Amino acid sequence: MLFGGCASVTDVAGVATQQDLLDLRAELARVQQIAQRTKAEADAAVAQMDKRQRERTADEEKQLQATSQRLEGLIASLTSLQARVDELNARTEGLSRQLRGATAVPPPLPPTPTARPTAPAPTPPPAEAAPTPSSRPSTNALQPQDIYQAAYIDFSKGSYPLAVAGFREFLRRYPDHQLAGAAQYWIGEAHFSLARSFTNAGQTDKATEALEQAVQEFRKVQANYARSDKAATALYKEALALLDLKQPAVAQARLQYLVDNFPQAEEAPLARERLAALKPGQ
């Protein structure tokens, strides 16, 4: 019902009235309130997930999946609400101009909307980039960088399952984004970090499982994003995970591949050192 909107008086009589403008502004205020409440719910969901991660309960993974799904729904709802706010702002602006320029003659064609004087989004689109409100991107909508940054913050806080969920959501929505390779790398890095945590806690089986998952995720960087800035780093970290899994021969092959194909990478000297240390034992 919220997104059904209301018919403008210009659709009926062809001339905007002050009441139409007031109605639109009232609707805009309602939508903004709903958007604020939805954002508050999303923030609460994020805080709840972080708390559950710290508690590390036995059913953590099941609860995390359910909360992640709820967060995804809230994000989608918030994005739609923000787009609606943007549309209502554009319509309000258009009606305001019509009221200011109304005369006895038939109304003129609707003026081309310009960018509203509101606070820009984190990465605003170029000004005057689109001719109509329907085709103009929402300045308040979530940007790809927002989802990526949220996942990276979770990673930096040690909330690795949350980080994995966030980066996977980023890749689902934006598989061809310039940050996609980095997102895939951080998924592998999160599993690698989890393996270290399990090892420190004496949970050998879980550590092995996390290492095997890390190897798979690191390989996806090379397979799907070979030109990514993280390609060489993913190869090196994959080799380290393989060494922890007691697979030195495979690790040596990956290190050699890194040295041969990325000789200028920062990881190349480290790879050569590892190779030199491995050869005597072969």
Question: Termini distance?
Answer: 70 Å
Shape: elongated
Main sheet record: none
- Strand element count: 0
Description:
68% of the residues lie in helices and 0% in strands. With 282 residues, it is mainly alpha-helical. The radius of gyration is 26 Å and the shape is elongated. The protein starts with 8 loop residues before the first helix and ends with a helix.
Identify the notable features of this structure and list them briefly.
282 residues; mainly alpha; elongated
Characterize this entry briefly.
The chain is mainly α and 282 residues long.
SSE blueprint and pairings:
Blueprint: H1 9-12, H2 18-55, H3 60-100, H4 144-156, H5 160-173, H6 180-200, H7 204-224, H8 231-244, H9 248-261, H10 268-278
Helix pairs in contact: 2-3, 3-5, 4-5, 5-6, 6-7, 6-8, 7-8, 8-9, 9-10
